[in-house]
Design a protein that fits this description.
The chain is α/β, with parallel strands linked by helices. The protein is built from 14 helices and 20 strands. It is globular, with a radius of gyration of 22 Å. The N and C termini lie far apart (45 Å).
Length: 415
Amino acid sequence: MKIYIKTFGCRTNIYDSELIKSYIKDNEIINDELQADMIVINSCTVTNQADLGLKQYIRHIKNHNPNTKFILTGCAAASIGKSLYDSKIVDGVMGASLKSNINKFILNPKEFDLGNLNFIDEKIVSNYENHTKAFVKIQEGCDFACSYCIIPSVRGGARSLKLEQIINQIKTLANNGYKEVVLTGTNIGSYGKDLNLSLAKLLKEISKINGIKRVRLGSIEPVQIDDEFKELLDEDFIEKHLHIALQHTNEKMLKLMQRRNKAYKDLELFEYLANKGYALGTDYIVGHPGESDEIWADAINNFKKFPITHLHAFVYSKRDGTKSVELAKTLGEVDKNISKQRLNEIKEITRLKNYEFRKNQKDLIVLVEQFKDGYYQGYDQYFNLIKIKSDKDLLKTWINIKDYEVEIDKNKAKI
């Protein structure tokens, strides 16, 4: 059979999809979804929009090829898998813990099995198709109880992969030519709490591996950046970009969201990291129940003080079974148009801050990842995109760029 793997969502899903590919036997993995006999969908369910996108994708494929079979895995398997299975929108549902059983599902797709939420993947990914950097999953699950979030219920509690397993995987990747690794997981800052270890200790061990030039980190919580982690901030192997999930900048809203961070402490942390030369990204939710005009005025005033250069922000999306849905019954819902205005406001602030940040940098260390629209493209150590004109073949090479043009949304260079 011709099998296509469709990946939605986060870097962890990119990793999981590669793991699924490694298990598939006696079938052909193809790159053209419209030619597939079966599509394995590794799904995201963090927002209602993610669920909608999943359903739209299936409809799109069925319009082209009504005989395509669908196996659903990933986060949406746990949240909406049963309804999609019962309504025959998908043929089968495979829980994330059952990746090694993919061949069984291929032979008999009409199965529904969510597995368990205590699993730890034992097999490693040693190669990534069409990627110049490698993703390494270091943990699963989350112990936080944010009022708006469905992820702990579909991924389970926080648990860590063994240190030796991670190190062996990165050594294998380094031997296969990868020089940049991206550490991913549901909540990577919680790494090691169940193993008497920490993210900082893991990073120290990774730094000893020959061949690894740069380590990028997935999203970290502000409360997880402790003194042990701060001791590593001047190390060259750590990318000069950290993504720290704030979610909001108003104290009352943070309490409603059941967040563990405090806005005034967050600002101190961001200023400290900015003084260390770091570009700083964050997650932010606008329009959560209770976000009054007064709260937003305080939040945006605080937001302007943060040295934020990258932003992953979205309008609140209610998820059944979360506390925020109950809060909406008493606090009311924020008008969608107002939410979109607030979203655009913080996006524009961040865009200008990023522009100013890039104007103040000098030497850029870039891993060239692709050739697109006449330009070589890659990201520098601050996780900013640069487009490069060159007659040389720069793909998968590291280059140091000193002379470049700073545009509002990217950098450009000619070599």
